[in-house]
Amino acid sequence: MLNHKKENRADSVTRFDVNSLFEFSKVVNSDVSLQFILNHFILTAMGKLLCIRGIVFLKIEEQTFHTETVRGFILDEEKKNIVITQKLKSIIYINSIKKKNEKWVTILNKNEIQVLIPLIFKNDVLGALGITKLSRKKLTNEEETYIKSLSNIAAAAIAQKLSVDKLINVNRELDKQIHQATTLFDLGKEFSSILNRERVIKLFSLSLMGQIGVRQFAICLKEGNEMKIVSSRFHDSIDASVICNLSGFENPSLVSEIVATKKLKKELKEIGISAIIPMKMQDEVKGVLAVGERIAGIPYTQTDLEYIYSIGNLLLISLENSRLFQEAVEKQKIEDDLLIAREIQRGMLPKILPKYAGYDLDAANISSKHVGGDYYDVINLDDDNFIIAIADVSGKGTPASLLMANLQAMIRALVPLKLSLSELTKRVNDLICESTGNDRFITLFLASVDKKNKSLTYVNAGHNLPFVLRKDDKIMRLEKGGLLLGVMKSTTYEEGIVQLVAGDVLVLFTDGVSEAMNPDGIEFGEERLLEIIKSRKNESAETIKEQIISEVQKYSGDYQSDDITLLVLKVS
Length: 572
Prior knowledge:
By secondary structure, this protein is α+β, with helices and mostly antiparallel strands. The chain has 15 helices and 22 strands.
């Protein structure tokens, strides 16, 4: 018996050796992440105290704690936040708490947590460690002394890491605001140089997608005494009155925080609207911008809303300048720009499309009176594969055409290297970022067709989602990819793969097709485009193409505000 006690005492001395505390302190105070500190802390505590369960909470507000990590069990998702009403000043044994019916006590008891050890730094409770010993006995004096020391070291490391992370976030936010201020200045110059209403709205739209990462949005502007939707990128058709009636809001607001009826909030949620930004001039609301979620679900900050509000004001100022000074524009200069841009664009498009067995291919580009930068291409890769591409650049005139010519040259130079489409797109994006300003963006859809296996591999860099119409009238939208080109270097892109079968129809198009306006300012829309494809699916690619162009031009009348570009591929 005496030998057994000596062995236990020796084992205890080994486990609670002060050197282990020094080693723990050295590890958690090195340049590691907060999650690493918490994981190392809980594993060390469980190992030293011979525990079978462990949980670490961090305080997010007074009495409210969030579960950061658990070991030995699974905590229900809805219980990740827990309100601990008892003050955490010292070690607490759960079974000694008098108010056992409190929710946090019930949760800990249910998960067999035996002891709570507070994490305190400079009299501030940062969180707590919960454990269950293998022996189910109370902590010995040696164990209490050790776990208090371990918790104090961990608390200091956690506090230091939280402070550093907070400082990093503050610096990141400052850098973001400086970048936004610089971008606003550049956008202001760009907006002031554009005198065409549709081009201004398009630049505004691309700025939202490129600078903020907005996936869906609707722009509503005051025309006379009425508000009308002038541009929308929400996938489904929306009730214009819902958005246009939001002009009563004076400040940028999240939908979750606005004071409105349950009916209105429900309608906004169903559409997918996350925030409402009024666009004001001389203290009068002359437009409303409704935005959906950001890419990757990143929440909007107040800084983001204020930035969008500033861009919206630039839009209104630019539109007003367009109205006031349009007659003062030098007509000859515009004509010269159009001629140069048309020549550049004409030279970069394929004169004759290649023929491939089993595939019927046709394409078209019809320039508007204000030339933009639409582009399409068909490139033979090898005996078994060929490349198709379609793209649209922000801005107008000669700069847009030159940038699109640059894009075409990049793609044709990289295709022979037989890179994956994701790598090819990444390299093109990096080159665009290096050679253009931060207010120039390009949407691109790039695909490789395997003629033998009848498969299509693609990357969509912010472009209008192409249609794949199956023989049974099922629809696929090709959305895998990533950010539009020119937003940020070293962006990665995801590839999508579609198996093609006989009778499939693939239609690529730019927004000159789907956003063509009739005299009343109503868009042609993707639904009309899809109906045309369905009605002509059994006919040739050329017939489908011609029918789309005919219907768009008939819808627009004599007014074509943007280039019409589309490519049709039919599998036989």
